[in-house]
Amino acid sequence: MSPLRIFRLAPLAIALALAGCTVGPDYVRPAAPLPEKFVEAADAVVAPVNREWWKLFNDASLNDLVERALQANADVQQAAARVEEADAFLREAGSALFPEIDLAGNATRSRSSANTVPALPADMLRHNDFKATLGTSFEIDFWGKLRRGTEAARDLALASHYGRDTVELTLVGLLTQSYLSLRALDAQLAVSRDTLITRDKSLAISRHRFAAGLASELDVRQAESARAAIVAQIADLVQQRAVAQHQLALLTGTPGLTLPAGDFSRLPMPPTPPAGLPSALLDARPDVRQAEAQLAAANARIGVAKAALFPTISLTASLGAESTELANLFRSGSNLWSGGLGLVLPVFDAGRQSARVDQATAQQKQALAGYSKAVQTAFKEVDDALAGLHQAGEKERAVDVQAKAAARVLALAEARYQAGYSPYLELLDAQRSANDASLTLIRARQARLSAAVDLFKALGGGWSAPALAAAPAH
Q: Is residue 33 over pLDDT 60?
């Protein structure tokens, strides 16, 4: 066999490998025992996922913070690096399907002993050896071990991509919740400062009435106590806002971030989800897709373990030249070549390889259970978020009625007190009720917005406007 024909066998070996069988089970997506639609939804409709769901809040500052976080957050950068690592591992695994060709060269100079039998002439005691070879070594993937390994690496690479998406989704959800909390604190501070102005006016009136002999010192002390309580409330809210701002600075990777006060009332409510969100939307959740990719990788590793039970067939070949003189290295007569076909068949290993098959099978069962749990957990989280969004809306509407009633009571109490028809305690009670109702309304609005964020996260994203237009109203 000529050396050229040996190297021409490489493509044939590849063809044989591709034509060979592939042991191990092929991946089949497991059936998810879930209802077609969520329990908290009505008639099912198609609702495409909106990947940029945070833009539904229509807030330029929030959009800017999310963009910063996706670029500079340390957790996202770590996840991106893991993706790069997995992609590189996939390229490494895929390279095993092709022959490795190496170029080797060496030059040696040696001296032999003169005291040997037969003794060498003095001019032959020292000699050179120059050698250059081109060699290849290739395992013929007849049983699909390398292909299954590449398949597992590809699925793990996909899992790392979905893992990065999960990190990004969690990050954006946490950032949005923190931003909404910051804006809610801004609104509570605005209400509290307005209340402080009212308390200052009440205190001034109480002092004036006390000086005129129309009220007792008790009214003055109660007014002073009420004013001090609002000052303490403002201090507490300022501290909470600072903590929320620091959290946003950490999430965006921007130490020293400062955000001016915003108007919470200008944050629009995101659109109501369409009725009957189909459970198929769970496929959009990156953690569910990551769990499935890990399941597929575990399934492929069974094939890798089973292929090890069969003979390993390898092809080796080399082509080169060797000479004692460098000038003669590439001349006729210096050529050398070799070729070989090797086969290794496991005969006895005390059950080691079969144990590895059992290990891979058990790992696949674990991954299957993990995937099933991920799907069921995702379904529960969506149902919880839908219920939370619905009840948060009901609560906000009820608190809104309460706040409007409390404001009317305050107006009446102020008029009665100034006219001398009621004691200051009645006015003070109305002021406290109005302040508490206003703050409760802001928190209820924040809870409703947060419930929408929870639903976005549970679905793996928001819903697109075309689906909303076609969906029946609740």
A: yes
Confidence (pLDDT) at 5: 53
pLDDT of 184 above 90 = yes
Structure-token match 């990719």, residue found: 293
* CB contact at 8 A, 317 and 339: yes
Q: What are the Cα distances from residue 365, in Å, to 34, 299, 446?
A: 20, 9, 42
Q: Where are the alpha helices (DSSP H) in 253-319?
A: 286-307
Return the half-sphere exposure (C-beta side, CA atoms, 13 A cut-off) of residue 1: 14
Give the per-residue pLDDT at 470: 39
pLDDT value for 122 = 67
Closest-CA residue to 340 (of 357, 325, 318, 367): 318
H/E/C letters for each residue in 143-188? CCHHHHHHHHHHHHHHHHHHHHHHHHHHHHHHHHHHHHHHHHHHHH
Q: How would you write 6-67 as a 3-class SS string? A: HHHHHHHHHHHHHHCCCCCCCCCCCCCCCCCECCCCCCCCCCCEECCHHHHHCCHHHHHHHH
State how far the Cα of 68 lies from the Cα of 455, in Å rounded to an integer. 23
For residue 183 the two structure tokens come to 């804006």
CATH numbers and ranges of domains, the chain: 1-22+102-140+312-345 (2.20.200.10), 31-97+143-310+353-470 (1.20.1600.10)
d(CA 376, CA 388): 18
pLDDT at 267: 78
- Asked if residue 257 lies in contact with residue 249, where contact means CB atoms within 8 angstroms, the answer is yes
Close Cβ partners of 70 (under 8 Å, ≥ 6 residues apart):
76, 168, 171, 172
- For the entire predicted model, the pTM comes to 0.79
Q: 56 - beta bridge partners?
A: none
Predicted local distance difference test score (pLDDT) of residue 342: 86
Top mean-pLDDT range of 22-36, 263-277, 371-385, 453-467: 371-385
Burial of 454 from C-beta contacts in 10 A (0-12 / 13-18 / 19+): buried
H or E, element range at 441: helix 424-459
Return the DSSP state at 278: B
What pLDDT is attached to residue 301?
Answer: 93
pLDDT grade for 277, boundaries at 50, 70 and 90: low
